[in-house]
Amino acid sequence: MEVAVYNGKGGVSASTQNNALKRKNLPTGHAEEIAISHSTFKAQRLKWNHAEGEARDLVKPKRQKKGDPSIVDGEGSYRGPWARYEDQDQAYEDEAAIAGEELASDEEYIEEAIVPPTMPALPAASTDYADSLETSETTEFHGEEQFDYQGRTYMHVPQDLDIDLRQEPSTQKNYVPKKQIHVWKSHTKAITSLRFFPSSGHLLLSSSADSKLKIWDAYHSRSLLRTFSGHTKSVTDSCFSPSGTTFLSASYDRQMKLWDTEYGKCISRFTTGKIPHVIRFNPSEQNSHEFLAGMSDKKIVQFDTRSGEMTQEYDHHLGPVNTITFVDQDRRFITTSDDKSLRAWEYNIPVPIKFIAEPYMYSLVRASPHPSGKYVAFQSGDNQIVVYASTDRFRQNRKKSFRGHNNAGYAIDVSISPDGQFVMSGDSGGYVCFWDWKTCKMWHKMIAADGPVVCAQWHPQESSKVATAGLDGAIKYWD
């Protein structure tokens, strides 16, 4: 808060009079601007008001004389305990004099109604404060041509490659990548999530702090295909539907939006008024139209994309929700939060079936399920990756702990290779680290960026291809 304080220095000598005039910024002197805190200003104001009130109380106001009870009206009439204070009448008379008319003794003062000025009605455009929801989302296609010679879009899984992308993931052995093969650059701020197209992985979806989402071609020319604009703040998370035809985005503008992957249209919008931190589609076929979102108000909300309605609310966490991981053939899910706990739930039942919170636990900020379906790896805030069973007991596997990287202070992705052999994680020092799942030993560590690497995803089909991204906005592809 800035307060102007009057500097009451008087008695300027004749030799410095001109300079003093120059220094004056008010007719009465010089007012300096000083910065004081709100609490200091409030204390000074209260002190001044108190002192002023005490000074007022020292001069006790006098009442008019009570008058003679025998005189009913006129001069000297009886006023009793209802007599005014002496200066009250004077103030009343002064007000009337300012108004330009003296009141007679038998007149009452009537305040004239203030007539509001007649103003023309505002045009419709001036009251249209926000863009209509239909026009606030835009998309731009960047590819050479939207349709090929057979009328197919980029959604078509390419078949002119030396790998069959339509086969089941995890059918081949994985290896640790050795070198960088491509860099995608278009985002202007930090990357917040990377998602490969489900099953085939021929497309890569990226979200960024620049409020945009982009789809990239992972094969052929490896070009930027489409940009999705519609959020007003940083995008926190994104998630493909099981079929890949649509995807969800969550943002700090408190909106969750459902987009058409092929043509870029925004299909639906969802919000609870809070910030969504993590968003996940239900991977099962019968519930693929529903999704869960972990919010900043400690709740996990469940929406139906067909009706747009909230269908369930899971409210047991004591801090913002960080991860949601479906387990046990998608009948259950595990959530973690800033309250340093882990909770397991039956889908559609808002009561936890397991609650784990130990004194030595740190916040679990990212998660990745193991392809076997028996374990989930969590990025823990104390520079390690911990593993919990995803079966009935949900116990921590104390034999499996992956260390050797730095993640404190960042929400860094953890990803497990499709064959379950390797664990990959980013690093706050710009590295990408790989561990062997069975022995928990670090297999490889390579420099991937100048700043922290926060996103790291394994390609679902390729034997040794991974995508990484960091705070510099560049997405790197490794083989």
How would you characterize the overall build of this protein?
The protein is built from three helices and 31 strands. The strands form eight sheets. The protein has a five-stranded antiparallel sheet, with no helix packed on it. It has a four-stranded antiparallel sheet with strand order 4-31-30-29, with no helix packed on it. Strands 9-10-11-12 form a four-stranded antiparallel sheet, with no helix packed on it.
Task: Please describe the topology of this protein.
Elements lengths: L1 E6 L9 H7 L6 E6 L2 H21 L27 H13 L39 E4 L38 E6 L5 E6 L6 E6 L3 E6 L6 E6 L5 E6 L5 E6 L4 E5 L5 E5 L5 E6 L8 E6 L4 E5 L5 E5 L6 E7 L4 E6 L4 E5 L5 E5 L7 E6 L5 E6 L3 E6 L6 E8 L10 E3 L5 E4 L5 E6 L5 E6 L5 E6 L7 E5 L3 E5 L1
Can you tag this structure with a few keywords?
single chain, 479 residues, mainly beta, five-stranded antiparallel β-sheet, four-stranded antiparallel β-sheet, 3 helices, 31 strands, 9% helix, 36% strand, elongated
Q: How would you sum up the global shape?
A: elongated
> How would you characterize the largest beta sheet?
5 strands, antiparallel
| Structural class by sheet pairing and helices | mainly beta
Our count of helices gives: 3
Question: What's the short version?
Answer:
It contains three helices and 31 strands. With 479 residues, the chain is mainly beta.
